[in-house]
Amino acid sequence: MTSALGNLTRQQRTLLGRWLPGASVEADHSWGLVATTVLEVTCAGARFIVKAGGDDDHGIRRELDAHANWLRPWTDRNRAPTLVRGDVDAKLLVTRYLPGRLVLGSEHAEGPRLYRQAGELLALLHAQLAVTDDDHERRENERALAWLVRPHRIAPHTVRRLQAEIASWPTPSASLVPTHGDWQPRNWLVHDGVVSVIDFGRAAMRQAFTDFGRLAAQDFRRDPTLEAAFLDGYGPDPREPEAWHRTRVREAIGTAAWAYRVGDEAFEAQGHRMIAEALANVRR
Predict the structure, then answer these.
(1) Burial code of 24-60, b = ≥16 C-beta within 10 A, e = fewer?
(2) Ordered DSSP codes for 5-28
(3) 148 with 256, same domain?
(4) Contact status, residue 262 vs residue 33, Cβ threshold 8 Å
(5) Range of the structural domain that residue 48 is part of
(6) What is the CATH number of the domain that holds 106?
(7) Record's SUPFAM superfamilies (predicted)?
(8) Which residue from 49, 75, 269, 279 lies 20 to 30 Å from 166 (Cα-Cα)?
(9) Judging by beta carbons within 10 Å of its beta carbon (0-12, 13-18, 19+), is residue 207 exposed, middle or buried?
(10) Helix axes 156-167, 136-148, angle to 10 degrees
(11) What is the mean pLDDT of each run of 10 residues along the chain (284 residues)?
(12) CA distance 140 to 155
C-alpha cells in the first residue's frame, strides 16, 4: 500500500516524512470522486489518518479551522479524531486514528439508538456559538443561482422555475452556528455501540438546520422513527418552515449540479428527486 503515497505531492510527502518518519500505509480510504487522498498509516506502533488535498481542494482548510475552533466538545469525549499536525498551504493534515466502522452500510444504519446519539453530538456542536449574519441568505441564494448557470442536467423549464422561486424569496437575517456540513451516516463511526464523527471538510458557520438536510433527504424520508430518535437526542427542532424550504431548494440544486460535475449518477438522481419534492411544496 506504500504506492498510495504516490498520490501526494512532493511537498506533502516531505512534510509527512518529517511528521511521521517511517510511516507505513495500512489502508487507502480515499473516496475516489474528489481529489482528496485519505490514508490509514502506522508509525512507531501508533495509528493515524492522513488527509491530503488536491490542487482544487478547499476542505483541508475547513477541517483545520474546525479542529482549531469547534471540535473540542467531541474530541474531549473521544467522539472525533484529534489533530496531530496540519499545514494549510500544503493541504495536509494528520489525526489520530479513531476506531470504528462506518455506520453507512452496516447493520447499525437502521438503529434509532445511534441516531439519538448523532442528535446529541450535533447539539453539542451547534450550542457552542451563534452569530447573526444579515447577508447570509443573499449569499446562499447567489451560490444556488451560480450552480444553475454551470453545466448540469436540470431541465431548462425547471431551471427557470427555480430561478423565479429564488428571486421571490426574502433575505432575512440568519443566526449561524458551527455546522458539520455533511451530517449523515457516511460520516459517522460506530465502535462498541458508540457513535463518533469524521470528515470536517465542509465545516462552516451556517444555520443549524442545514445539518438536517442530508438526513431529511435520505434517512428520515426512509424511516420517520429515525427522525424521532434524532430529535430526541438533539432537542427542539430548529427547522422554521420558510427558512427550511429555502434551504431544501438550495440543497437540492447543489446536490444535482455537484453530483453531475463529479460523475456520481446515483447522487445526481437524488438531487433531481430533491428538486421535484421541494418544488412540489411551492404554491403556484
Answers:
(1) eeeeeebeeebbbbbbbbeeeeeebbbbbbeeebebb
(2) GGGS-HHHHHHHHHHSTT-EEEEE
(3) yes
(4) yes
(5) 2-97
(6) 3.90.1200.10
(7) Protein kinase-like (PK-like) (SSF56112)
(8) 269
(9) buried
(10) 170
(11) 74 96 93 81 96 89 97 97 97 96 88 96 98 98 98 97 96 98 96 96 97 96 96 98 96 96 95 95 62
(12) 22
| Same domain (yes/no): 121, 214 | yes
Beta carbons within 8 Å of 69's beta carbon, 6+ residues apart? 178
Q: What is the CATH number of the domain that holds 53?
A: 3.30.200
Residue that is last in its domain, among 59, 77, 97? 97
Domain final position from 97, 132, 149: 97
Q: Which three cell numbers stand for residue 124?
A: 453539542
- Do 80 and 127 belong together in one domain? no
Assess whether 70 and 35 both reside in one domain: yes
Please report where in the chains the cell 474530541 appears, as a residue: 75
Q: Please tell me the pTM assigned to this model.
A: 0.93
Q: What is the pLDDT of residues 214-266, one digit of tens each?
A: 999 999 999 999 999 999 999 999 999 999 999 999 999 999 999 999 999 99
CA dist., res. 203 & res. 70, Å (int):
9
Q: Round to whole Å and give the CA distance between 276 and 57.
A: 30
